[in-house]
UniProtKB/TrEMBL annotation:
Family: Belongs to the RuvA family.
Domain notes: Has three domains with a flexible linker between the domains II and III and assumes an 'L' shape. Domain III is highly mobile and contacts RuvB.
Protein name listed in UniProt: Holliday junction branch migration complex subunit RuvA
GO cellular component, as recorded: cytoplasm; Holliday junction helicase complex; Holliday junction resolvase complex
Gene that encodes the chain: ruvA
Stored CDD domains: UBA_RuvA_C
A Gene Ontology molecular function term of the record: ATP binding
Subunit structure: Homotetramer. Forms an RuvA(8)-RuvB(12)-Holliday junction (HJ) complex. HJ DNA is sandwiched between 2 RuvA tetramers; dsDNA enters through RuvA and exits via RuvB. An RuvB hexamer assembles on each DNA strand where it exits the tetramer. Each RuvB hexamer is contacted by two RuvA subunits (via domain III) on 2 adjacent RuvB subunits; this complex drives branch migration. In the full resolvosome a probable DNA-RuvA(4)-RuvB(12)-RuvC(2) complex forms which resolves the HJ.
SMART domains in the cross-refs: HhH1
Region of interest: Domain III: 153-202
Localization per record: Cytoplasm
Species per Swiss-Prot/TrEMBL record: Metabacillus litoralis
Length: 202
């Protein structure tokens, strides 16, 4: 099992990032790839989970051990796979997710892609009262932000954010509802993704 990988971010796509570790490129699926910046100067540590199935061998990566722990707990829920767990973590607000589980707020949980009423109830049944260790240690801010002002950069960032939302499983019609209000602002891709998720989860 690979616990973590230390290296440089070589590429960022809507679905995954590529970490260059001593000349070897690791493709790693993350909750919000655009929260990472391509850089050959800044070395990062990403905590990994190796998912093995008959037809799949994939690496999932997280900014903290606590984020990884929450992902693994979600995977233990019947009906939640890696893609569904990533979509839940992509909101960037684990405390909201944990609070919804503890308060049995299935109305909030069904807002995530692929989570219906039955799966939401299963999440609550399986995880309520079992997230104390994660909640106590969880970093409040998963993603960092940078201000950018150039209009063309913002448009490019918005397009990347829309692609990332599609990868997470949000439908075209849902994205179209929030896109106009997002276009009025000049943000980074990461900020667009987070703001869109906040609007989609309301």
């Amino acid at each position: 099992m690979i616990e973590f990988i230390k290296g440089y971010v070589d590429d960022v796509t809507p679905e995954y990032i590529v970490i260059d570790h001593r000349g070897l490129g690791y493709q790693i699926h993350t909750p919000n790839p655009f929260s990472y910046k391509k850089s050959q100067q800044e070395e990062i540590i990403i905590y990994t989970y190796q998912h093995v199935r008959e037809d799949i061998l994939a690496l999932y990566g997280f900014k903290s051990r606590e984020e990884k722990a929450l992902f693994m707990k979600l995977l233990n829920v019947t009906g939640i796979g890696p893609k569904g767990a990533l979509a839940i973590l992509a909101s960037g607000n684990p405390s909201q997710v944990i609070e919804a589980i503890e308060n049995e707020n299935d109305t909030f949980l069904v807002k995530f892609p692929g989570v219906g009423k039955k799966t939401a109830r299963q999440i609550i049944l399986d995880l309520k009262g079992k997230l104390g260790d994660v909640a106590a240690l969880y970093a409040p801010d998963l993603f960092t932000h940078e201000e950018i002002s150039k209009k063309h950069t913002a448009n490019h960032a918005l397009n990347e954010a829309i692609e990332a939302l599609k990868v997470l499983g949000y439908a075209e019609r849902e994205i179209k509802k929030v896109a106009p209000s997002l276009a009025e602002e000049s943000l980074t891709t990461d900020q667009y993704v987070k703001k869109a998720l906040q609007k989609l989860l309301k």
